[in-house]
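If your schedule permits, I should be very grateful for your opinion on a structural question. What I wish to show you is a protein chain and, alongside it, a tokenised description of its three-dimensional fold. Would you kindly read the sequence against the tokens and tell me how you understand this chain to fold? Here, with my thanks, is the record as I have it:

===
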Amino acid sequence: MIQFSPGPSQLYFTVNDHVKEAFRNDIPSLSHRSKTFESFYQNIKDGLRELLSLPANYSIFFTGSANEVWERSIQNLVEDKSHHFVNGAFAKRHFEIALQLGRQATKTEVPMGKSFGATEISYGAELIALTHNETSTGVSLDTGFIHSFKSKHPDSLVIVDAVSSLPYPDFDYTQLDSVYFSVQKGFGLPAGLGVWMVNDRCLAKAENLLAKGKCIGSYHTLPILHQFGLKNQTPETPNVLGIYLLSKVVGDLVRKGISKIRKETEYKSAILYQVLDNHPTIKPFITAKEDRSKTVIIANCSDRTMALTAYLLEKGFYPGEGYGEFKKQHLRFANFPTHSKEQFESLTDAISAFR
């Protein structure tokens, strides 16, 4: 069975071998204060800098999940005001957490399945939060749109949720201040690890809030993460196995090359969208082609969702269910580096033949 759910998704094809190696070498029992663990952490930092063209002024930290970053980012980067671009369930949750933490959060919100036009934001927003790829709806924001905020709002920090798109997008990180993801999607690993990348402006903001006597949290604050991160360590005992596996898969992706990853992603998404555009009853949910995600492709199946699901399962393809209110109308298909061109060609053949 090929897992096309957008998360947890199909394991990267090398993970089984990496897991066997990990247990042969007793990696799960390894101390997070050991030199060996520090080498895994350093490998991830080096690998992500090469894979993503991450600038030297970015630090890389580990959390329990990307969900945790929603809370930590508000605690550490916002004293009063944040502004959120909301076009789906996950972007909305970040906004809601800001409100729950007592911040003056504002939002620019569009209907599900739509992108943004006007970019007006509330005056004095310390943090501008954007979701590059909304996993619930399959809308992907243009990178030019995301990059535009830095010049317009130089005093604001720009944070990007790239949970279901990295490593595909070609971000200009000099125009961003923080990007985060979790490993169970594009990096093809078991769930249970978030990766939070922040630049020195974020670290300075957290230190400034702390100096003012503000509470920035009691756990995984940026100053504490940075203190230990300088030594390639974590404050607490982390998901050591997950970090080891991430170091291995990042190395695999670096060897494959980001250019090849991006070209394959674009090819696979193009053939699936072509089939959906031409199918008599199954259509893309996102009608505007410029807004369509390359990494989470959503099919609007209407009343045929159950029939198509059963058909695909018989063929060995496991699609992801629709999200929230669209659970019974949509199917979601992940397009991550672990999904081969041949798998996507077989999937598109199957959908094309479905009547």
